[in-house]
Every structure is written in C-alpha cells, then in structure tokens.
Amino acid sequence: MEATRAGERRTRAWVLVRAEKGQAKKVAAKISALNDNTAITDQRNFVVRADLVTGTYDIVVPVDVESQKKLTTVVVEGIQAVDGVRETLTLVVGVHNPHPPHKAKGYVTDEEWTLHPHGVPPGPGLRGASPGENPWG
After folding, report:
1. Which of 5, 33, 82, 93 is the 20 to 30 Å CA partner of 60?
2. Dihedral sign, CA of 30, 42, 92, 63?
3. Is 85 part of a structural domain of the chain?
C-alpha cells in the first residue's frame, strides 16, 4: 500500500467475480468501463483490468484506490451493481511483491520500487502509481 495523504494508505485488492451463466465476457467489459463512471469515485483508472479466468470465479479484477472506503464504494456501487454479477469476493492486498518480476500492466509505488529484490530498472512504462508496463505488474 502506498501513502497518499497524512495517515492514509492506498488500497489494492483483487475482486473475484462470478457472473451469470454465459455472461462473463459482457460483465468483464462492463466492469472495465467503470473507470469512466465518476459517480462511483472521483479517482480515474481504479479498475486496472477485468480478466476472464476459469475455475470457481469467472473474472478477476485488480483494483487500486486511495482508501479502504473507496474500495468499498467501488465494489458495492460499481462492480456488484453491474448487471450479470452474481457474487464477488474481495481480497485486499497486504504486500504487493510479485516474484519473479514480470512485465505486465499494473501499478508500482516508489516505496515498492526500492524494495525490489533484483534492482531491475523500470521498463518502457510508467511507475509511481501510474498504469504502464513495469517489472512489478
């Protein structure tokens, strides 16, 4: 989690989504489009992406927001309100530290960058709470 204002920490989570039968692709597209809805939160790009997966859940949604309160708003008023969402499970990230590093679109903070075990320089993307290709994903 990244510091935002005095005493606050950024909140990252993986939201697992079960969709109604045959609706996963449509639901994932609607969840991805939530970033355009400023009625949910004033923050842009809070939904990193919506990945279709196999298994117990149909969609995995990484979320990056300014606070736990905003996470609750995004999940309840955003993701759960999407037509075709049957169930969600929210997993709040305690430590964001994939190993080995990979190049995927995602977020990395300056603090996390200093903890990188390999000291690999950033790739062509952005870092510091900006979306882009980076070795942290």
Report:
1. 5
2. positive
3. yes
Assigned domain for 3 exists: no
The verdict on residue 52 lying in a domain is yes
**Per-residue pLDDT of the chain in tens (137 residues, 90 and over written 9):** 444 454 456 788 999 999 999 999 999 999 988 877 666 666 666 777 899 999 999 999 998 888 898 899 999 999 999 999 999 999 998 876 655 555 544 555 556 556 655 555 444 344 444 444 444 44
- Cα gap 132→2, rounded to integer Å: 17
* Cα–Cα dist 25/4, whole Å: 34
Domain span at 19: 11-92
Q: What is the number of domains present in the chain?
A: 2
Domain check: are 125 and 88 in the same one? no
Rounded to two decimals, what is the model's pTM? 0.66
Report d(CA 54, CA 135) in Å as an integer.
Answer: 25
